[in-house]
Write a structure and sequence with these properties.
The complex is a heterodimer of chains A (342) and B (543).
Chain A lengths: L4 E10 L2 E11 L4 E5 L6 H9 L6 E6 L2 E5 L11 E4 L11 H5 L8 H14 L15 H13 L5 E5 L7 H17 L4 E5 L2 H7 L2 E6 L2 E6 L1 H6 L4 H6 L4 E6 L21 E6 L4 E3 L6 E9 L3 E7 L5 E7 L9 E6 L6 E3 L1
Parallel strand pairs in A: 3-8, 3-9, 6-7, 7-8
Antiparallel strand pairs in A: 1-2, 1-4, 4-5, 9-10, 11-12, 12-18, 13-17, 14-15, 14-17, 15-16
Chain B lengths: L2 H26 L7 H8 L2 H32 E2 L3 H7 L8 H12 L4 H10 L14 H26 L2 H9 L4 H30 L2 H6 L4 H11 L3 H31 L12 E2 L2 H37 L2 H34 L3 H10 L7 H27 L11 H25 L3 H9 L4 H30 L2 H6 L7 H10 L3 H29 L3
Parallel strand pairs in B: 1-2
Chain lengths: 342, 543
Amino acid sequence: MSSRLVIDNVSVSYGEIEAVKNFSLTLEEGEIGCLLGPSGCGKTTLLRAIAGFESVASGSITLKNHLLSSASTMLPAEKRRIGMVFQDFALFPHLSVEKNILFGARQLSGDDKLRRLDVLLKLVGLEKYRKVYPHELSGGQQQRVALARAMATRPDLLLMDEPFSSLDAGLREQLAREVRDLFKQHNMTALVVTHDQQEAFLIADKVAVMQQGELMQWDSPYAVYHSPASRFVAQFIGQGTLIKTTADSNGLNKALDFCVLPDSEGKSQEVLIRPDDIIYDESSELRLEIVDKKFGGAETVYSLKLPDGQVILCAIHSHIDKDIGETLPVRLDLQHRIIFPT
Amino acid sequence: MNRSVTLWRAGLLFVALAIVLPVLVVMSSLAQPFGDVWQHLADTVLKDYVSNSLLLMLGVGFGTFMIGVSGAWLTSMCEFPGRRFFDWALLLPMAMPAYIIAYTYTGMLDFSGPVQTMLRDWFGWGYGDYWFPEIRSVGGAVCMLSLVLYPYVYLITRAAFLEQSTAVLEVSRSLGNGPWRTLCFVALPLARPAIVAGMSLALMETLADYGTVQYFGVNTFTTGIFRTWFGLGELQTAAQLSSLLLLFVFVLIVLERWSRLKMRYHHTSSRQKYLARVRLRGVRGAIAFAICFAAIAFGFILPCLQLSVWAIETWEYAFDGDFLKLVLHSFSLAVMASLCCLVVAVFLAYGKRINNGGFENISVRVSGMGYAIPGTVIAVGVIIPFAWFDNQLDAWMRSQFDISTGLLLSGTVVALVFAYVVRFLSVSLQTVESGLLKIKPTLDEAARSLGHTPAQVLTRVHFPMLRISMMTALILVFVDVLKELPATLILRPFNYNTLAVRAYELAADERLAESAFPALAIVLIGLVPVILLVKAMNLQYRE
């Protein structure tokens, strides 16, 4: 029996407002999915609907072939066998670490409980803290306790709502990696909500990009970056600029006259140019004026002006140090042609 | 609408209506005809009531401001010998009910008291040779009330000073203002809403005071209400006087609410670290010490010493079976009232948590306004509807079954406990609400996702987390009930004495020394909430 999560055509509304619209996706057993989108796009609402804290207006949510939610069904949260890690961790302040972790594992016998506690504490590296209370822990440690607590009941699915947002940047990356390894080791099925794409790329097998309650794309991190299905995804994921252009009969573009696009005669269209599509080349004839630069340590991102005035970004090795107003010799190396007709 | 929401709303509405009932009854008396007695009052004493009440408010306002603000400034911004002690000790006079300090000072300062006797011994004066201030006067009442009410101003102002962002004060310093200019032009203006809030609380207590002004023979609304009712037997006119007093109170409520709203805007950016305190050395340190010490000495230590001396002298008479009965009465009343308050407060707080809408907010707000209503007014507002109910029931029973039920509610403990709930519900409500606020909704959800039903969430998460708040709510109301005087005097069953009533009656009979024993008991019990407050304060501003 697989622990597939199937979300079928689900809508969730708050009164008049439809927070999630006709949303469908399937998460296979052992997969880590991620709901990614700007704030207010409905990702947390969807997560709460799966957990059983919001009811759905239409559609259905099934887990392991059991119906959890539909317009007429609402299995209580406590019966869903779904673990959840909250944005604020929601640790019980009146209970020690071990009591927090074992809070949900009530049906276990004493010995089993202790054994599971030991395993979990070791898993999250908090063996020394079992008697400690939540307020004495650092943010990262609280996060680990929350994770251990959610895993203690061996849920069929684990949900995480912005799990790393309250941690500082370095710790965030480290924890995201650890959590992914942990999930993979235990073949956990998990769905993570985040607004941070780096986090999503680090942790997820598949990313669902959401906008205004709708699913825009459900794909691997590589695919959402390199073959975005829509303008919104193209602009939301990664850096990049959409360049408006029209090709002449030779396939040469007005804006990008250095680039031949297939099958594009006479059409006006938009081309996605990522900073890594523009390569520094001393020998290139093409020299573009630098209008802005951002030094970022290993790389510098230059804003370059095309002949027709549109601006593209170019990320290159920071040893190549030019000033604003100078020109940069570059060539286009478009590995993935992302073109949207206008 | 959901059925459970409707049920909660009905419950909230019922509680809110019950709490405002006394106020509505009193206010409705304004629509009744003003009788001859009213004309008589207007011609004779009404002017005194108004002018004395205003004088008292003016005096107590000034007194509590001076003591409260200077204490708050010294303990929060300066460093001087004894500062850590004064931090909490300045709250001690809160434990001293005004009527008790009033008759203690009367005993100390009258002709045969220790102070005048000592003066005569030292200077060889005789009767009539010297002038000595009369404590039984408006001025005396102002002093007594200021001495025990300044902690309201102190507490809120100190918190405001401590919460002021270091940055704002440092900016003022860096712009060339010394500590005193910083106080006057930055810190005080920023703390103004807090000071006003504290003073309005102190003034509400001033208006509500009955014991002190009655004992000092100062005619105010509260004594007037008593006299009109018990002396002239005019309940109607007493209610009309009460509604006049309520007008004063409403002004204060509005003032307090308004300044609390303001406090939010005057809240500067969050405080990162504590500003280095101004170190007061030498004479300046001694003056700071003297100011703080005087407040505690006059407001707490001296009266306590005097009460102890009297209690030791008289304990053999005082401590008998009667005393135990007083304690039993007081305690059982206090336990009943605090339990009722807690149950109602928990009900209200959950009603608001489950469905936090405009209706719930208003009902809860209304239910918590009793703290501002003087006990005398509440008593009048309780006795009228209860007596009406008793009479209706009695008449009906007699006409139907020929049985007289007599007075079922009025004149019984039920009426008294109801009055206590009206007056003190806000105390337990605030405590329970702030406790409940700490239980974030995600905790409920976390417990649900870990396989707990809503009922199990209540027993495994909420009750353990609320335990301390609920205990605190019980204790606070318990002590307030024990100290309460005017409502108890009016509503108690015939010959049903409590510690407070006994202490007051003995003092009124000029048996000051004998009253010391129950009075001291009240003061000691009154220390409990002060200790709780000090503990909470230390947690909040641990340095």
